[in-house]
Design goal:
TATA-Binding Protein; seven-stranded antiparallel sheet; alpha+beta; 417 residues; 9 helices; outer membrane lipoprotein receptor (LolB), chain A; twelve-stranded mixed sheet
Length: 417
């Protein structure tokens, strides 16, 4: 047997024993592209060792997941590189305008460029470099480095600050002052740790999880945990997580699509230290002349860093359906059809579907047609908009079906609906 092979199989009892650890390992929330495609019951197959990589002791998938769950790194700093490639068309900056328009006025920052609600959506495309630091549950800092500018999000005690150096704008909010909030780790969004824990969040029998060799990430020895959907209907090929052999902290997260090619999401540390960051790292003083926007909901239930993660008690919004139903009733009329990797979210817009070139006026309808594929079925007709991970069907009567599933799976769901 290879040094890192695992021929263990997971029984129903073992799955129950791992439940608590998996729930702890999933206490963070990650970018929406990953939400809903994660795993919960473990299916193990033999794993292979990568020649030339660190020679580490044998470990099973269950043991590695438990190691992630027990990871309790509270002090660290480092640099993370994240690349997201959903295969969206180049709209010449239009997509950024749409995002800004959607978040302006609806977020707590009233459209300020320092509001993290809008700023951190930039991570949904392209390649970005982040500097991250943490010193326990009350002090975290994330800096997004772009060209000559920098955006920083700082949590220090009761204060949460967002600062955009390009516009010289400041956002200020108050962190929740509760015992439960202080007990939870408040890590910045889009780190490999969060992405990995979300991918282990909710397991079912549609998933296979194996240990496949070792790797070195940011100078650290790591195991490679590979998560794959068993069914062919998902657009997800596999998720690979490099887990620090010593601390159990996920160091790198890579999601590759079933269609092949470059990763859809590739986030990993390029530098990491587990030394205590200097206290001055989390200090913030409003720069001279900066415009300061106070969060109108500062006495709210959650602050920006707090709101970027959830747990079994506070973070979830999903509402379970009645026993025997094949969907869960979500907020605002959202239904979730199926389970696991093949889950499809559906809702009714209450209006018409996507305007076509013949009836939209001007060239706008034709432009939308060029981005999607027209389809027909028992449901009538509609348009499918595709990315390398998430696909959406909008029917002509205003119903929406969306998920990390194939075009055929969306049409089948619409026909059944």
């Amino acid at each position: 047997m290879a040094p890192y092979e695992s021929d263990d199989s997971t029984s129903a009892g073992e799955v129950d024993d791992l439940g608590t650890g998996r729930r702890k390992a999933a206490r963070y929330v990650v970018p929406v592209a990953v939400v809903g495609v994660a795993a919960a019951t473990i299916g193990l197959v033999p794993a292979l060792a990568d020649s030339g990589d660190p020679n580490l002791p044998k470990i099973s998938a269950e043991q590695l997941i438990e190691k992630i769950a027990k990871s309790d790194v509270q002090q660290m700093s480092g640099t993370v590189k994240i690349t997201t490639d959903l295969g969206l068309p180049d709209l010449g900056g239009l997509e950024n305008s749409l995002v800004s328009g959607a978040t302006k006025g609806s977020g707590s920052g009233d459209g300020t460029s320092a509001d993290p609600t809008a700023k951190l959506t930039e991570l949904a495309s392209g390649t970005h470099t982040l500097r991250v630091a943490a010193d326990g549950p009350d002090r975290q800092k994330l800096s997004l480095l772009e060209n000559a500018a920098e955006y920083s999000l700082i949590h220090n005690g009761k204060d949460v600050w967002g600062y955009d150096s390009q516009s010289n704008e400041v956002y200020h909010s108050t962190a929740p002052d509760s015992a439960s909030a202080k007990k939870r780790h408040e890590e910045p969004p889009a780190t490999p740790d969060q992405l990995a824990k979300d991918a282990l969040k909710a397991a079912d029998d549609t998933t296979s999880i194996t240990v496949q060799g070792t790797a070195q990430v940011a100078g650290r020895d790591a195991y490679r945990l590979v998560i794959k959907p068993k069914d062919a209907g998902s657009t997800v090929g596999q998720i690979t997580v490099a887990v620090d052999a010593k601390t159990g902290l996920p160091l790198k997260f890579t999601l590759t699509p079933a269609s092949g090619g470059a990763a859809v999401i590739d986030a990993g540390f390029t530098r990491i230290s587990f030394s205590k960051p200097a206290a001055s790292t989390f200090d913030f003083k409003v720069p001279k002349g900066a415009k300061v926007t106070e969060d109108k909901q500062s006495d709210h239930k959650s602050a920006p860093l707090e709101g970027l993660k959830g747990d079994d008690k506070t973070g979830g919004t999903e509402k379970k359906g009645k026993p025997g139903e094949d969907h869960a009733k979500g907020p605002d009329g959202l239904n979730v059809l199926g389970k696991g990797w093949d889950s499809i979210a559906t809702f009714d817009t209450g209006g018409k579907g996507v305007p076509s070139g013949s009836g939209a006026g001007g060239d706008f309808g034709g432009f939308l047609d060029s981005l999607g594929d027209k389809v027909t079925g028992k449901f009538g007709s509609g348009t499918i908009f595709k990315t390398r991970l998430i696909n959406a069907l909008i029917t002509d009567n205003g119903k929406v079906y969306v998920g990390a599933v194939t075009k055929d799976a969306l049409v089948k769901a619409a026909n059944a609906g």
